[in-house]
Design goal:
137 residues; Arc Repressor Mutant; Alpha-Beta Plaits; binds nickel (II) ion; DNA-binding
Length: 137
């Protein structure tokens, strides 16, 4: 095990401490190691660029000007990557969309970025699952 020193702002450290308390980590090091493992695993999947399935979910305000049409347009423009979508009307203003994607990891990440960087899209998450046999981590 290597020992390193990192500089982190108070706000981010408070988030780490909150994760520690909620999930029962014995130390900050343990909590931060698990966060890095999650990120590293995700980056590893993306760097291999094999065929993947992915679940993309996000919340958006359907009153934001032409946002719903733009999101639908992007998925139609990439229909070869889009397997299925589910749309949930969360409340008066907000919608939750979950879309299953399938294709090369880089193409899925790019489509996800195109959608999730639109103004009015919140709480976005892309979960990428490699289809080629890889050890589970
Ligand atoms: Ni809706």
């Amino acid at each position: 095990m290597e020992r390193i020193t990192i500089t982190i702002d108070a706000e981010l450290l408070a988030i780490v401490d909150g994760v520690m308390a909620r999930r029962g980590y014995a130390s900050r090091s343990e909590a931060i190691r698990d966060m890095i493992r999650d990120a590293a695993s995700r980056e590893d999947v993306l760097s291999r660029n094999g065929v993947c399935v992915a679940v993309l979910d996000y919340v958006y305000d359907h009153e934001t000007r032409s946002l719903a049409q733009r999101l639908t347009h992007e998925l139609h423009a990439h229909h070869h990557l889009s397997v299925a979508s589910m749309h949930i009307h969360l409340d008066h203003d907000r919608c939750l969309e979950t879309t299953v994607l399938r294709g090369p990891a880089s193409a899925l990440q790019k489509l996800s970025d195109t959608i999730t960087t639109q103004r009015g899209v919140h709480h976005a998450n892309l979960h990428v699952i490699p289809l080629a046999a890889q050890p589970d981590r």
